[in-house]
Design brief:
globular, about 25% strand, Homoserine O-acetyltransferase, MetA_family, alpha/beta, about 30% helix, transferase, amino-acid biosynthesis, EC 2.3.1.31
Length: about 300
């Protein structure tokens, strides 16, 4: 089934070329069903890449989804064409009176930056507070997860001496959870971060439950016991070359805290094409979240979300 996006969005042609069913706004308006309304707060500098990655994951369900994109007003990305932002993105003041079935707060390249020193921290806090009454279920991704854990529960993020960078195996702590429907006992997913939290700090909060951890014992997925907030530190939506591009970027910067991404290149050789070993993880993670925690529990009358 389709994902509903504007015809002119750059991701439209990319997804159609991959035989992913995207629906025009005109066709969607003439179907007698209510789509899920989803909001993506995109904090990544390469917004079009992130848009495409997330839309690819969200498209693999029998649900029609209306996606809105949100940018910060307190900081404007310099890596994305201003016309793209003006055409496809809202600011918070433009959507603050709307309600959404689901929301994704993306990561951001903010390793080693304290939350309060982030240029748009006050605005993100305002949006996270608003989400508690205007969004049925929020999916905090990577930096968004650390921001959410800190804002909602006061859990401090920690700087890691070495970046967690590569493809890691994960242990599922809640095997019966619908979130892991179809998963193997252990699953693979990329990480690209120099930020962490103490697992014990998360486990100490009665409203939080740890869902999965990395093979290194780092938090991978947590959620609230009412399933209204998810905190995910892995990047199951990444493309084949995402880590390669990040590695090349970091090498050009002369960073000494980054090694070749683990379990990524064949024979650990950056000249070889990396295989995708996490595609099923990504499709299942986002599909299960949408189906079991958004679609099946959100009210039919979206105005009843509170």
């Amino acid at each position: 089934m389709p994902i509903r996006i504007p015809d002119a969005l750059p991701a439209h042609d990319i997804l159609e070329s991959e035989n992913i069913f995207v629906m025009t706004e005109y066709r969607a308006m003439h179907q007698n069903i209510r789509p899920l309304n989803l909001l993506i707060l995109n904090l990544m500098p390469t917004k079009i890449v992130t848009e495409t990655q997330l839309l690819r994951m969200l498209s693999n369900t029998p649900l029609q989804i209306q996606v809105d994109f949100l940018q910060t007003a307190s900081y404007t990305s310099t890596h994305t064409d201003i016309h793209h932002l003006q055409q496809f993105y809202y600011t918070f003041d433009q959507i603050r009176n709307r309600r959404y079935d689901g929301m994704i707060i993306t990561g951001a390249p903010l390793d080693y930056v304290p939350c309060e020193e982030t240029l748009y921290w006050d605005e993100v806090c305002k949006i996270m507070e608003w989400s508690k009454t205007h969004v049925h279920c929020t999916f905090h991704l990577c930096w968004g997860a650390y921001a959410g854990l800190y804002y909602h529960y006061g859990i401090e993020k920690l700087d890691m001496p070495k970046k967690l960078f590569g493809i890691y195996s994960h242990e599922i702590r809640k095997e019966t959870s619908p979130l892991f429907r179809g998963f193997n006992d252990n699953f693979l997913a990329p990480h690209s971060r120099a930020t962490d939290v103490r697992l014990s700090d998360v486990e100490a909060i009665p409203e939080l439950e740890v869902m999965a951890v990395t093979e290194t014992g780092s938090l991978a997925i947590a959620k609230t016991t009412d399933s209204r907030q998810f905190f995910v530190t892995c990047h199951a939506e990444y493309d084949r070359d995402t880590l390669a591009l990040e590695y090349e970027r970091d090498m050009k910067k002369g960073l000494t805290t980054v090694d070749v991404p683990v379990n990524y290149y064949p024979d650990n050789d950056p000249t070889k094409v990396p295989p995708i070993t996490w595609r099923a993880t990504g499709q299942l993670l986002y599909s299960n979240w949408l189906n079991f925690y958004v679609y099946q529990s959100t009210p039919y009358d979206i105005e009843e979300i509170n």
